[in-house]
Every structure is written in structure tokens, then in C-alpha cells.
Design a protein that fits this description.
By secondary structure, the chain is mainly alpha-helical. It is built from nine helices and no strands. The chain is globular and about 50 Å long.
Length: about 260
Amino acid sequence: MRPSRVVFAATMIGLGVLGLISRDFPPVWTGVPKTLPGREALVYLCAFVSLATGVGMLVQRTAAFAAGALLIYLLAWLLVFRIYHVVLAPGVEATWWECGDTAVMAAAAWVLYAWFAGSRETGRLSFATGESGLRIARVFYGLGLLPFGIAHFTYLQVTVADVPGWMPWHVAWAYITGAAFIAAGVAVLTGVYARLAAVLSAWMMGLFTLLVWVPIVVAGPNASQWAEFVNSWSLTAAAWVVAESYRGTAWRALRRPSLVAIEG
């Protein structure tokens, strides 16, 4: 059982528990209008989906079904609560950032579904498995990285403020990481140095979590900072899954890699 699979599944379980404890949407499931009828019921539905699919992905027999169910739920969320907001406010960069969050999570779920289902799926859903499924998942991941990078420039002051105080050149780091996200997204989408881009972007998200948010959590975060930590951790877990899908591919490959089957 690959570590990325375990970490991602555990992350979904954690999101489910967090939703039940807080009785609110954790970062992955935000964007629901407060005036929406049945909003509270949707909170518990999200918690149930997170818990059930997280546990399901840890069991080989149910892993494909669980990953597929999570993927469908994330795609529905992307359409109803993310893209909808982009249509309403296309000039607000935060709406694109939120789309990126959900796209990266969906990419990880799609990679896992492609792994678990392998070539067993036939008929109308065959496009979602095997090598074709991985290609689509990586497109979602690459597209998701682009608004992350753009946000570093459009929200430069916020990004600079998040750079740890002990690090020099705060503004430079904001520009560097923003450009790195954009470059990684383009590399994944084009297949040029895609493995290198996926791995480095996963490391970058992990370092953000470790260097920026862990110290804040240790010091005692407010509600907004706690949500940012959870979001950063979730995206890191998802990025790790996508990065592992390139295992066996040359670091400097200029073409899309073939499917690497997962071991139980």
C-alpha cells in the first residue's frame, strides 16, 4: 500500500471528523451560500462522504468504489459551488483559487480511481480508468496549480506576510513561489518535465505546510489560520498522490507517461 494513498485517505477521514466536530464545512467543502436551504444537512453529508470514502480507500476491496464516489462528489462540488462562483464573479481571483483547490483534490481522487479500477472498467466509464484516466487527472492538477501561482501575485501583500520572519527576501520568495506554481502547472499540462514539476510542486506545498502553518498551529491559530493549515495539508496530500502517479517516468520526459499500476 503506497504511502500517498494512506495519507490521502487519512486526510479525508480527518476532514470528515473535523466537519462533525465543528458542524461546519472544512476547507475542502467551502463555498456554500449561507442562505442555501438544507445547508446544515449538506455539512453532515460532506462529513459522511469524507469519512466513508477515506475508510473505503484504505481497504483494497472497496478502494475503487470509494475513490470513484469521492471523485464524483468532488466534480459535482467543482461544478455547483466553484465554477458557479467563477461565472458570477470572474474578476475575483479568490474564486479561481477555490476552483484550483477542488481541482487538485479531484485530481488525486481520479488518480486513485484510475489505479484501483485499472483496466477492469469497461463501457462508458472506461475513459476514466487506466492511462486515459491518469491523463485527465493530471490536466485537473495542472489547471489547479495555475490560480495558486497567480494568487501569489494578485495577493502579494498576503503572500509576503505568510513568509516566515526568519527567512530573508520575503517579496522575492512570494514571486519565486508564484512563478514556480505557474511553471509547474504548464509543465504538467504539456507533459514537458511533468514528473519533475509534479514532485517539486508537492514538495513546495509540503514546505508551506511545515514552515508557514505548523508554527502558527503550534502557537495557537485563530479560525482562519486553522482553516488555512487544514487546506494546505489536504492539498499536500493530494499533490503527493499525483506526484506518485509519475513513478517510473523519466524526470526529463517530454511525453506523457504510461500508467503505473498500484500495488495493494
